[in-house]
Specification:
The chain is of the alpha/beta class and about 375 residues long. It folds into 3 domains: about 160 residues, FAD/NAD(P)-binding domain (3-Layer(bba) Sandwich); about 90 residues, Alpha-Beta Plaits (2-Layer Sandwich), CATH 3.30.70; about 70 residues. Helix content is about 30%, strand content about 30%. It contains 10 helices and 17 strands. Strands 1, 2, 8, 9, 10, 11 and 17 form a 7-stranded mixed beta sheet that branches. A hairpin with an 8-residue loop joins strand 13 and strand 14. The chain is globular, with a radius of gyration of 21 Å. The chain binds flavin-adenine dinucleotide (FAD). Flavin-adenine dinucleotide (FAD) binds next to helix 1, strand 2, strand 3 and strand 16. The site of flavin-adenine dinucleotide (FAD) has 28 residues, from helix 1, strand 2, strand 3 and strand 16.
């Protein structure tokens, strides 16, 4: 049994960011820290987008950023500045490179390339079983979903934000690279919440991502057909596909954090850090990793890290509505954008609005649906 002070399971976005922040903080200089992953990622396996006001920590590795966004639906279309926010794009390959470059400077942080089979809470320690090893740590930061418990329960609805994206390069300059299309709902909804996400990062290069908020994934060819139809409709003909990406992010208010124990804390998507109503995760990982470092330094119990807030309930109501009437997404987001400045919406999705601001936004979305969902949720507590 090999002992460590900290073991980080999974060296994706959240695991690496925790290791990075620990490597920069002298508090952890004497601690033994192990990162375990079945692979050491270097390739661009995903592209992260997020928004923040003004400059930020990741600006040196941004692929690009936009200060104008477009929104389109049958109810409302707009193209607006989001200043002081910027919508930012990072290639994961640039992120991995920057993080590893820092981590490798630290002798107390090591990497083990092995598949982890299980993690168990023991007496004042956590045990990790890998294919070839048994490891032990005072603190385990785990970013791997070992069970599908969240899919097996029926207390909270579970949707997926699922998508396929094509990075295309056109022969001629076709794109307005100063504006990102946040959501384009003017595509066939087919009874679901479906939209196209378009990120032009050069005048002849853009990411087209066909995205759904729904419970079931599609056959791969359905995403492909939808992207090709969209490109055709936009009269984009002479192009080559330079990269593709595919993903599925759980959208649920399931309380992942209830599995945190004395010596194990779940982080990233496995810790419930994906925003339930949108699937956006990168910004939460960024913020929560800073908070978790302070929490560990203050030696606070790991079980007290997660704080449930009012936004959890708002997300739950939206998911209740969309899981029952999956076609309502375009209407709900359409009203949201029609009646609110995009900056207010971004602040709301960032969970930084006051109660008064929340009400201003919510009362302008179809209120009947939300009141009904609240009422039904309330009833479920008693029956
Ligand atoms: C294609 C794609 C695009 C996305 N785009 C955005 C975006 O634009 N904005 C946004 O906010 N979010 C986005 N997300 C969601 C989210 O930000 C990412 O999924 C993010 O990588 C989640 O970080 P994580 O640490 O939870 O998981 P991951 O980054 O997936 O890390 C988990 C790690 O665990 C390892 N692992 C898994 N099983 C084992 C095992 N048994 N043993 C050892 N290691 C294991 C994996 O190899 C991986 O390195 C996207 C997701 C995908 C898939």
């Amino acid at each position: 049994m090999t002992n460590y002070d900290y073991i980080i399971v999974g060296s994706g976005a959240s695991g690496l960011l925790m290791a990075y922040r620990m490597s920069l903080d002298s508090f952890f200089d004497d601690a033994t820290i192990l990162l375990v992953d079945k692979e050491r990622k270097t390739k661009n396996d995903r592209t992260w987008c997020f928004w923040e006001a003004h400059n930020g920590e990741w600006d040196s590795i941004l692929t690009t950023s936009w200060n104008t966004i477009k929104f389109k639906s049958d109810i409302y279309r707009t193209k607006k500045s989001i200043t002081p926010y910027q919508y930012k794009m990072i290639k994961s390959s640039d992120f991995y490179k920057k993080i590893w470059c820092q981590i490798e400077k630290k002798e107390n942080i090591t990497f083990l390339k092995e598949e982890v089979i299980g993690i168990h809470q023991n007496n004042n320690k956590a045990n990790i079983i890998t294919v070839n090893n048994k490891l032990e740590a005072k603190v385990v930061l785990n970013s791997v979903l070992f069970t599908n418990d969240y899919q097996q329960q029926n207390k909270y609805p579970v949707l997926q934000q699922h998508f396929v994206g094509y990075f295309i390069k056109t022969k001629y300059d076709l794109f307005e690279d100063s504006a990102a299309t946040f959501m384009d709902f003017t595509i066939p909804q087919k009874g679901n919440t479906r939209f196209m996400y378009v990120l032009p990062y050069a005048k002849n290069e853009a990411l087209f991502e066909y995205t759904l908020f729904s419970s079931d994934l599609l056959e791969y060819r359905e995403y492909k057909i939808a992207i090709e139809a969209y490109l055709k409709e936009k009269k984009i003909k002479d192009y080559e596909i330079i990269e593709k990406e595919r993903g599925s992010i759980p959208m649920t208010c399931y309380e992942f954090w209830k599995a945190n124990s004395e010596n194990i804390i779940n982080i990233g998507t496995a810790g419930g850090w994906s925003k339930a109503s949108t699937g956006f995760t990168f910004k939460n990982i960024d913020r929560n990793s800073k908070r978790l470092i302070e929490h560990m330094k203050a030696k606070k119990p790991l079980q007290t890290f997660h704080k449930k807030n009012k936004f959890w309930l708002y997300d739950l109501l939206l998911l209740d509505i969309l899981s029952e009437k999956n076609y309502l997404g375009a209407t709900i987001f359409g009203h949201m954008f029609k009646n609110n400045q995009p900056q207010k919406i971004l602040k709301f999705l960032d969970e930084e609005t006051s109660l008064l601001e929340d009400l201003q936004i919510q009362l302008k979305m179809p209120p009947y649906q939300f009141v009904r969902a609240l009422f039904r949720r309330g009833l479920r507590r008693f029956f």
